[in-house]
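Box S2. Input/output pair 1.
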Amino acid sequence: MSSTTVILAPYQFCNGTNWIAEGGIVSDGGLTLISTQQTASNSASLQFTNLPTSYNTLFLNCAGLVISANGNSIYGIVREGAGPTWETTAHYTNWGIGMSVGLTGAWVWSATNGAALFGTGALSTTSPVQFKAYIDNVGSSSLSKMATVLDSETDSSGANPIIGNTSWNYWINDTNPITGLEVIALPELLLQEHAPCTE
């Protein structure tokens, strides 16, 4: 009788070549800081442009985003090419699950032919929102662009003081490499203030 022992590390990620345990390193490096956005208050949007297409995955980390008016939402879209061509048409597909303090259970939502890679609900001006987006296949010209997004927010009604969402999203119109990301506050297109977003 033979046996095989498999040991699974609790947290691993793939850098495109190797599986790396949390806290582990490989000789070809780990995460690389590409850009940090620090803009003044009343910003219409945060744009990350001229992104290199040599990476398999981009990690967008935003915290402390505060909107200018109750009910506004924050969205993220992708850019292709050097133009730039911001992809705002209805070719994004999204699925998600959310939970809230004060509510029993969770809710599931989905959207097809949406106009954003990820987004929030109607937000409150008194509570900052944060989100982390992992966007895969960014440099590929043959694979769809997939994104897993985690966000924490407070809705503008005050009924849901803390909301946590996890969503799975993709850009389905074509497979061109992603060269930019934009974070937008709608409908008034104003971010009152924010902490740095890094990618």
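Box S3. Input/output pair 2.
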Amino acid sequence: MTKIFLNSFSILLLLIVNSYSGVTSATQSSFTISQIAKSLSHSSNNTANQQSNNTTTSSIIDTVNLKADIQADAAKFGLTVDTAAADILSGIANTDSKSVSAALTSLSDNLTQLDDDYVSTPDQNTIVYSMAWTDLEKVTSYDGKTYSSNNNVFSATGTQQSRGKVYVNFKKKEIWADIDVKLTRAEGATSTLQTNYNTGTAGFTSVPIVATTVRKFKADGTNSWDNFDGINDTMKKNATTIQDVCDGCTGLTKAELIDNFNHKVTGGNTGDQDIFFYGKFTTATSSTSGLGTIIVEGGYVDDGANEATFAGTIERLEASGELTGKAFEE
């Protein structure tokens, strides 16, 4: 996952709006990795085989000596220790949404890329970290940036939710994720779309594991690269600019990116209504819970609006929390 939870996550874990009526479903194509970077994939058919098991992880904040446990897992599975991540996770005192979001923001992903077509199979050594359907909540301030309090992109009364399962095999040193989302846009066809996103498999060589993913979800239920440079947890670079165009995207301009993520379709405007998606996941050891976050964004401007105007309209929704892990069972 270099640009997917790895170039094609992580995660995690956990969009979109469609022009269909009612609640529709679409299956996202898998993508490739670069760090859970942008890749982590696995068939969601195996998800149905996940059953409850008495083997569960304990809360990360209940661990008496997390750093010692991290060292022990590193020795057990032949991994190194990401000391920066260990320091940050050892300092967590709460697992509320704000605390989890702040901790994850400070972590750098540390996955390794595997072949894009490699698919891992869950076995008795696989731990599944799950997040049930969780409401995505409006965020107007994040990491020194402000976001619009309007509800022009995401409906204030519609369903905005995500859920996900992250699969981690410490013995094989592999991680992948299945993510589902339900989003309702404010303009255009306001029906809720439920869609699934399967990441590709990534590798890891250290603990704690930190995985990130980024994607663009289109209004028709499909997904593709976000086309921003690098893996960013927001479209917004600062108050008046958005992230740079991806390196190698020859001919692509910021004006086109603004059109992609613009949700204004009234008054003769023709925004594509794509949704920016970002996910991040971490787990310190094979016996502790995971932490995850899902973020979605979109903007709302008249056709031809400049970059500063678009940046000022970006709306952001987020869900962050603790994910309990359970041993996988057929």
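Caption for Box S3: The radius of gyration is 19 Å. The chain has one domain: 24-327.
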